[in-house]
Design brief:
about 40% helix, single chain, 2 strands, mainly alpha, Cytochrome Bc1 Complex, Chain D, domain 2, globular
Amino acid sequence: MFISKSLAVSAVAMMLLGACTTQSTLQQSAVPGPALGRVASADEVKAWSISIPPSGVGLPAGSGSVQQGLAVYTAKCVACHGEKGAGKPADAMAGGKGTLASADALRTVGSYWPYATTLFDYVRRSMPVNAPMSLSNDEVYAVTAYMLNINAIVPAEAVMNAQTLPQVAMPNRAGFVDYSRK
């Protein structure tokens, strides 16, 4: 009997404690947030609002060649993406042509990506992974040119810029449906 009363008292105490905690939580939730961060300024939002659509509208000034891209890739990309985009430890960036319909599809710049402008946009926003948005526009154009070259999409003498990049015909462009409501 003593154990049952002890358990009953413990259960009632836990319920009361739970009710107190719930009341405290309810009171705290009326306070506006945990005071983390701050509202971004208009200039900060503008600096991060850099999306580039497939058409290339909004591509920045600058340019980069395949040779310049090799230098940028060697300095800032090869550690993750391997020699000539072969991969390891990160995803492969080259190869995979003709594999998309197979069980072992290799989705790379050359086999999967529908627009060269999407590659530019992604690299500019998120690479290198340890310092996103740290590449200059010239470096992004250059590494984009290099990626397109190692996938046999542009020749070794290619130079990418706001005019040439949207003109690149990607091998899998027809593999996507355009829902942009032009």
